[in-house]
Amino acid sequence: MTRKRLVIIAIIWLFSLLAGGTLGYIIIEKAPFLDALFMTVITITTIGYEEHIPLSKNGQIFTIILSLSGAGLFFYLFGLVSEFIVRTTMENFWGKKMEKEIAKLKDHCIICGFGRIGKNIYQFIHKEIPVVVIEKNKEVIEELKENKILHLEGDASSEELLIKAGVKRAKFLVTALGDDVFNLFVTLTARNLNPSLYILARADSASVEKKLYQAGASRVISPYKIGARKMALALLRPNVMDFMEITTPEIKSDLQIEEVIVSPKSFLVGKTLIQSKIREVSNAIILAIKRSDGEMIFNPSSNTVIHKEDILIALGTIQDLDTLHKLATGELTF
What is the DSSP letter of 272? Predict the structure, then answer.
């Protein structure tokens, strides 16, 4: 329950006691309104003045109940204030600690917007790369605090806030806000601050995709378009869809698709696929090779030569892909 709701409960409780107490004294003791209100106030606040109204037995019982209710409200408010003080102290401590941790980050990812899309992106990547979230929604901020996720509160298009999030040291930035205009502003600001930053931008409308690229986005993704394609594929090519699902992280499967960069130090450089013996050593299947100039070779033949800085798109188990990674970086030779 949020702090705002707790305060609302306390206010409703207080006014209910005032109204109920005043009405009770008017009905039970036939007291005038002002006298009944005065008696209610001194009872629930436990001030301890002498009885302002002569009380019958029913009035005494009612006063006991009202007094206990007032004491309950007092303890509730005391707990609320104590919790607020402790929470504020802890938030200040956590906030300073978090800012120090963010200041130390390098080659991290900044996620702007922690809605459904931003949250899912975080779940996929946070185990592999440090993440800082920028969000302005108060309820979402509370969720981030509870889960101890590194975050900053405010407008993601703010240059000052992006710098505070370490945009100049970051490797990736994802702008997944629900408004295309805001995503455009974030992209433009982030690109000006870090020319080498990889920016992944969300676009809800097709008309804004071109503008996002012009603003500096490295890649523009339309969640609705991708979702529609997957649904259409599930209808028309269900078996292909099943295969694609197997290689996604949320499906518990041994198979994964990974990209591996070939280091200049790797003995794979200059060898053909058949000479590299990648299949025999790692058991990974090379689905495609992306050259450093951007050329993509799908289903490369056994005579395709591997160059330095090539990106190998491979299919295999975690162990297979780990072996391939060691071959590509030069850690493993034979």
Answer: B
